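Request:
You are asked to prepare a plain-text protein record giving the amino acid sequence and the backbone structure tokens, at your earliest convenience.
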Amino acid sequence: MIRWISLLTSLTIVVMLCCHCSSPDQHQRQTHLKEWLADNGKIKTLSTTCMVGDLVVRVGGDYVDNLCLIAPELDPHSYQLVKGDDEKLAFAQVVFYSGLGLEHGASLHHYLEKSDKAVSLGDEIAKAAPKSLIIIDKQTDPHIWMDISLWIRALPAIVRTLSDHDPAHADVFRANAEKLYKEMTTAHAEVKREMATVPDSKRYLVTSHDAFNYFARAYMATPKELGEDSWQVRFESPEGLSPESQLSSKHIQEILDHLSKYRIRVIFPESNVSKDSLRKLVHAAAQRGIQVVVADTPLYADAMGPAGSDADSYVGMITHNAKTLQQYLNQQPDAVDQ
């Protein structure tokens, strides 16, 4: 009985350390940080985002303590190192990050590029499947986790890295990764089925920024669009690959034309992105006689959901997005001009 209580306590701490960045409680964050900094014989990993951290914890299990660096209410694109981050980076044995230009804040980017203990999951995926990457205006779209079948390719790099640090438990890491691989494969198929319940004529998406290209290609496009490489029509946003991109009047007009053509009447906020650009869209649409509303339920793109929500895990956030889209998009009128 004591052994089981100890095991449950250990598992609870691991989960909390992964998801603590979802908690708005500063006191809890400090408590989790102290626990992470304690020497307990586990591999100390630091993950830039909790989408990264979720995979690391699932693969590492009882032998890894993970801390998420960037809180979900913050923008990972422009995140700059703050007081206390140097201690975390120095203490971590491994720093896992998304890569492909996601973490481009100067101070964090400089560290990740120079550190020999930083592992870019995105770069590993790019090596394994270079033709799967989406290029927009000569820039690689870094939001690869939005396609589960791509994000799953990060697992071998995590297994290899953790095994290098703890060879005695390499078999455990491989077994955990195999279990997670099956779960993610199943989730990928389920999301496809969920989105397939939305008719082609209604399966169009507009969100706050350019984070859903991989999602649209994997789960919203028709086979014909994929074959012709014309799937991009399924997704639009007022802001670019990073939320700090400038919103131009020309781009607003392009999106208004898109809303009008495909009779899109609902647009979606993202959990950690300002709604300002969406409000501008709604206002501009109204001036053209197009009635558009902002969905009450946000989607998750650059962050997972808060602890205890249906999106507080990687698979959970993608599943949440699919269910939310299915609910709202099925209420849309059919497009008449395609």
The radius of gyration is 20 Å. The chain has two domains: 2-184, 194-329. The domain at 2-184 is CATH 3.40.50.1980 (Rossmann fold). Residues 170-196 form the longest helix (27 residues).
